[in-house]
Design a protein that fits this description.
The protein is α+β, with helices and mostly antiparallel strands. 35% of the residues lie in helices and 19% in strands. The chain is built from five helices and four strands; from the N terminus they run αααβαββαβ.
Length: 158
Amino acid sequence: MTVKLDKFDKHILTLLQQDAGLTVSELAAEVGLSTSPCWRRLKRLEDAGVLKKRVAILDHNELGLDVIVFAEVKLEAHGHEALPNFQKAVEKLPEVLECYTVLGEMDFLLKVVATDIHAYERFLHHLLSLPAVREVHSKMVVSEIKCTNELPLDLIDQ
Protein backbone atom coordinates (compact mmCIF):
# COMPACT_ATOMS: atom_id res chain seq x y z
CA MET A 1 0.00 0.00 0.00
CA THR A 2 1.48 3.33 -1.02
CA VAL A 3 -0.91 5.56 0.92
CA LYS A 4 -0.60 5.84 4.67
CA LEU A 5 -3.98 5.92 6.37
CA ASP A 6 -4.39 7.56 9.76
CA LYS A 7 -7.44 7.32 12.02
CA PHE A 8 -9.16 10.22 10.25
CA ASP A 9 -8.67 8.64 6.82
CA LYS A 10 -10.00 5.29 8.06
CA HIS A 11 -12.99 6.97 9.69
CA ILE A 12 -13.79 8.91 6.50
CA LEU A 13 -13.52 5.75 4.37
CA THR A 14 -15.62 3.73 6.82
CA LEU A 15 -18.38 6.34 6.74
CA LEU A 16 -18.30 6.53 2.94
CA GLN A 17 -18.53 2.74 2.69
CA GLN A 18 -21.72 2.95 4.74
CA ASP A 19 -23.17 5.98 2.92
CA ALA A 20 -21.46 7.31 -0.20
CA GLY A 21 -23.94 10.17 -0.35
CA LEU A 22 -22.51 11.99 2.66
CA THR A 23 -21.37 15.52 1.89
CA VAL A 24 -17.92 16.77 2.81
CA SER A 25 -19.52 18.89 5.54
CA GLU A 26 -21.30 15.87 6.99
CA LEU A 27 -18.11 13.79 6.85
CA ALA A 28 -16.07 16.55 8.47
CA ALA A 29 -18.54 16.93 11.33
CA GLU A 30 -18.65 13.17 11.91
CA VAL A 31 -14.87 12.70 12.02
CA GLY A 32 -14.08 15.90 13.91
CA LEU A 33 -12.38 17.92 11.18
CA SER A 34 -13.24 21.19 9.51
CA THR A 35 -14.49 21.04 5.94
CA SER A 36 -11.27 22.08 4.14
CA PRO A 37 -8.95 19.47 5.73
CA CYS A 38 -11.60 16.79 5.22
CA TRP A 39 -11.94 17.75 1.53
CA ARG A 40 -8.13 17.63 1.10
CA ARG A 41 -8.05 14.15 2.63
CA LEU A 42 -10.82 12.99 0.30
CA LYS A 43 -9.00 14.45 -2.69
CA ARG A 44 -5.75 12.73 -1.66
CA LEU A 45 -7.55 9.39 -1.24
CA GLU A 46 -9.23 9.78 -4.65
CA ASP A 47 -5.99 10.82 -6.38
CA ALA A 48 -4.17 7.85 -4.82
CA GLY A 49 -6.83 5.46 -6.09
CA VAL A 50 -7.88 4.34 -2.61
CA LEU A 51 -11.33 5.85 -3.12
CA LYS A 52 -12.16 4.57 -6.62
CA LYS A 53 -15.71 5.91 -6.91
CA ARG A 54 -18.87 6.55 -4.96
CA VAL A 55 -21.85 4.43 -5.95
CA ALA A 56 -25.35 3.44 -4.93
CA ILE A 57 -25.85 -0.22 -4.04
CA LEU A 58 -29.08 -1.56 -5.50
CA ASP A 59 -31.13 -4.49 -4.21
CA HIS A 60 -31.05 -7.09 -6.96
CA ASN A 61 -34.14 -8.89 -5.63
CA GLU A 62 -36.24 -5.72 -5.62
CA LEU A 63 -35.29 -5.22 -9.27
CA GLY A 64 -36.27 -8.75 -10.30
CA LEU A 65 -32.72 -10.03 -10.68
CA ASP A 66 -33.41 -12.98 -8.40
CA VAL A 67 -30.81 -15.46 -9.62
CA ILE A 68 -27.17 -15.22 -8.56
CA VAL A 69 -24.76 -17.84 -9.90
CA PHE A 70 -21.06 -18.38 -9.38
CA ALA A 71 -19.72 -19.80 -12.61
CA GLU A 72 -16.32 -21.49 -12.68
CA VAL A 73 -14.82 -21.33 -16.15
CA LYS A 74 -12.02 -23.46 -17.59
CA LEU A 75 -10.38 -22.52 -20.86
CA GLU A 76 -9.12 -24.98 -23.48
CA ALA A 77 -5.63 -23.54 -23.43
CA HIS A 78 -3.75 -20.63 -21.95
CA GLY A 79 -2.23 -19.46 -25.19
CA HIS A 80 -1.00 -15.98 -25.90
CA GLU A 81 -4.46 -14.72 -26.88
CA ALA A 82 -6.87 -16.99 -24.98
CA LEU A 83 -6.77 -15.24 -21.60
CA PRO A 84 -6.98 -11.64 -22.81
CA ASN A 85 -9.65 -12.53 -25.37
CA PHE A 86 -11.79 -14.19 -22.71
CA GLN A 87 -11.30 -11.25 -20.36
CA LYS A 88 -12.36 -8.77 -23.06
CA ALA A 89 -15.44 -10.85 -23.86
CA VAL A 90 -16.46 -11.09 -20.19
CA GLU A 91 -16.08 -7.33 -19.70
CA LYS A 92 -18.82 -6.86 -22.32
CA LEU A 93 -21.32 -9.17 -20.59
CA PRO A 94 -23.64 -7.10 -18.37
CA GLU A 95 -24.75 -10.18 -16.43
CA VAL A 96 -21.23 -10.61 -15.04
CA LEU A 97 -20.91 -8.55 -11.88
CA GLU A 98 -17.45 -9.81 -10.94
CA CYS A 99 -14.74 -11.81 -12.66
CA TYR A 100 -11.60 -13.21 -11.07
CA THR A 101 -8.66 -15.19 -12.38
CA VAL A 102 -8.21 -18.07 -9.94
CA LEU A 103 -5.73 -20.81 -9.18
CA GLY A 104 -6.75 -24.45 -9.17
CA GLU A 105 -8.74 -26.61 -11.55
CA MET A 106 -10.62 -23.67 -13.06
CA ASP A 107 -9.27 -20.48 -14.59
CA PHE A 108 -11.95 -17.90 -13.80
CA LEU A 109 -14.69 -17.34 -11.25
CA LEU A 110 -17.64 -15.22 -12.37
CA LYS A 111 -20.45 -13.78 -10.28
CA VAL A 112 -23.46 -13.65 -12.58
CA VAL A 113 -26.92 -12.16 -12.09
CA ALA A 114 -30.06 -13.11 -14.03
CA THR A 115 -33.78 -12.61 -13.81
CA ASP A 116 -34.53 -16.34 -13.67
CA ILE A 117 -33.03 -19.74 -14.42
CA HIS A 118 -34.01 -19.51 -18.09
CA ALA A 119 -32.15 -16.21 -18.46
CA TYR A 120 -29.10 -17.81 -16.83
CA GLU A 121 -29.38 -20.77 -19.21
CA ARG A 122 -29.30 -18.36 -22.19
CA PHE A 123 -26.29 -16.61 -20.65
CA LEU A 124 -24.59 -19.99 -20.11
CA HIS A 125 -25.07 -20.98 -23.76
CA HIS A 126 -23.51 -17.69 -24.81
CA LEU A 127 -20.62 -18.17 -22.37
CA LEU A 128 -19.98 -21.68 -23.66
CA SER A 129 -19.90 -20.38 -27.22
CA LEU A 130 -16.98 -18.04 -26.48
CA PRO A 131 -13.70 -19.12 -28.08
CA ALA A 132 -11.46 -21.22 -25.83
CA VAL A 133 -14.14 -21.94 -23.19
CA ARG A 134 -13.83 -25.62 -22.39
CA GLU A 135 -16.23 -26.04 -19.48
CA VAL A 136 -18.36 -24.12 -17.02
CA HIS A 137 -19.45 -25.31 -13.59
CA SER A 138 -22.37 -23.34 -12.16
CA LYS A 139 -23.13 -22.90 -8.48
CA MET A 140 -26.53 -21.30 -7.94
CA VAL A 141 -27.03 -19.22 -4.82
CA VAL A 142 -29.90 -20.49 -2.66
CA SER A 143 -29.79 -17.75 -0.04
CA GLU A 144 -27.60 -14.74 0.55
CA ILE A 145 -26.09 -14.80 4.03
CA LYS A 146 -23.68 -11.88 3.77
CA CYS A 147 -23.10 -9.49 0.91
CA THR A 148 -21.02 -6.41 1.50
CA ASN A 149 -18.56 -4.15 -0.25
CA GLU A 150 -17.37 -2.68 3.03
CA LEU A 151 -13.66 -3.40 3.53
CA PRO A 152 -12.48 -4.12 7.11
CA LEU A 153 -10.21 -1.09 7.54
CA ASP A 154 -9.40 -2.09 11.13
CA LEU A 155 -7.25 -4.88 9.71
CA ILE A 156 -4.83 -2.33 8.23
CA ASP A 157 -1.96 -1.65 10.59
CA GLN A 158 -0.70 1.91 10.54
